[in-house]
Amino acid sequence: MTFKPKNGTLQKQLAATFSLINTGASRPFHQTACVHISPKLKPEKRRMAEEKGVKLLDLWSSPFGQRCRIALAEKEVEYEYNEENLSDKSELLLKSNPIYKKIPVLIHDGKPVCESLIIVQYIDEVWPSKTPILPSDPYARAQARFWADYVDKKVYECGTRLWKLKGGEALQEAKEEFILILKTLEAELGDKKYFGGETFGLVDIALVPFTSWFYSYETYAGFSIEQECSKLVSWAKRCKERASVAKTLYEPKKIHEFVGHLRKKYGVE
Amino acid sequence: MSKSNVVLLDHWVSPYAMRVRIALWEKGVDFESKQQDLSNKSELLLRSNPIYKKAPVLLHDDKPLCESLIIVGYIDEVWPSPPLLPSSSYERATARFWADFIDKKFAEAATKLWRSARSTEELEAAKKEFFETLKQLEEFLGEKDYFGGENFGLVDLALIPFWSWFSAYEKFGGFKIESPKLYAWMQRCMERESVAKALPAQEKVLEFVCTLRKILGFDQ
Question: Which of the four CATH numbers 3.40.50.170, 3.40.50.1370, 3.40.50.2000, 3.40.30.10 does domain A10-126 have?
């Protein structure tokens, strides 16, 4: 991703001081480049540079952050990506999301928007001309919001239990519940290309980041999602053919490695 | 348009159902309310909301809509006047955030007060959480007349139904809610016809909660 300056002296000055940097080999970094604002800028201009534009406070592995990244990519919006260290949260994160202190947070011209599905809808409203994320019909919109909310209420919480529980009856129950959740979603998908029909939309964006975690869920809970919900797996493949999804999602093996670290951290293994 | 093309599968004591009633009355929409017996759910309810099997459900020309904030969003789009959401995208996102906060944090903390706190420790934790969310809401309200600013809107509508439950929270939480700002806001909302019609009297809700607690095994 490159920074494209608009007309004007200030923007040219900013463009000259911008450089693309990598956050370093020690931390995994997603494919979108990070834009750095030079400390050489005078404080006032630095403040303005920081205020204007789009910033995303995020964590590379977060499915909620990925929803926002996919939406921004679908809309071809340029933005600055800030990788947060959740064990040492930045001043900006704490100031921008004082209620939950969580990522993702979208900061647009200095104003923060929190909660991933609210951020995605905001992105859809502010940049309406490209690829609509929500349909125009009010009933279809309500249905899309209902199913995105279902994904929020069910998939993350149950999926987390699949890798966080040590085993036994609780894990078995979580597995059965998860399969039921996926089958419910699969029934809603039906024979459609995407949840929104012909158009990739809100529900697809809400769910697709979790598909990178499927391998981990299957491994730790001992089941095959392909066997249980083959239509959903086909849908995931179709989504990954989209550039926005392909460049945002990590390979399942990479997520699996990350989940391995989490399991050690939480004393599961 | 006949009354029956908008049907609400309703429950008189549910704050979530109250939200939908308020929204419909704010818009001047005629509707038929069908009270649901949640201990013996109707065929219509189970068919209309197979995922959660809960009220409220709005049936518009027989098409079901579930989840109160989603229903209210739909009502606002289909009957745009007067608007419940602001026109600026940023303010809309802010309104949605706080309505969601009320669901995720406030409502959950409030429910713990009367429904799940079984020990003194659990009750104390529930009270602390309840007051913290109330304080956060108060801060957001600030000096405004309504959460939406000058006009009654989504966040006001999302929160005001819980006012009818305040006697129950106070009784089972063992406290008195002292907040002049929130109290003034509640009075302002209660002056609206839609709200006054939608909210049951606090005493009736308290009676309902007492009965429900006995069924759940509290207060034996």
Answer: 3.40.30.10
